[in-house]
Amino acid sequence: MKNKETISLARMKQGETGIIIEIEGGHKLRGRLDVMGIREGNIVKKVSGQLMRGPVTIMVGSTHTAIGFGMAQKILVEVEGK
Questions:
Q1: What stretch of H or E contains 29?
Q2: Rounded to an integer, what distance in angstroms lies between the CA atom of residue 35 and that of residue 16?
Q3: CB 17 within 8 A of CB 39
Q4: Rounded Cα–Cα distance for residues 8 and 33 (Å)
Q5: Which regions in the chain score pLDDT beneath 70?
Q6: Class of 4-80 in CATH
Q7: What is residue 27's predicted lDDT score, i.e. its pLDDT?
Q8: How far is CA 55 from CA 10, 41, 81, in A?
Q9: pLDDT at 81
Q10: Distance between CA atoms of 58 and 72, rounded to whole angstroms?
Q11: Where are the domains of the chain?
């Protein structure tokens, strides 16, 4: 049986998929992410990222998007653990 784990989008592994459960930020951050289709309840897949810095590339639906590492740290995602 798989357990669900909540981590930041920045900590997800490449190729991992999860559901966005919370965005830890104000209206400005939420608005910027909403325009890109990144909102609570959406499924997100991490395409690539660098350890501890740099942009994080994700896929939401069929759209590829790159966001900053700081933004990615504020997006909490529920992923299936092993």
A1: helix 27-35
A2: 23
A3: no
A4: 15
A5: 1-2, 81-82
A6: mainly beta
A7: 94
A8: 9, 22, 24
A9: 61
A10: 10
A11: 4-80
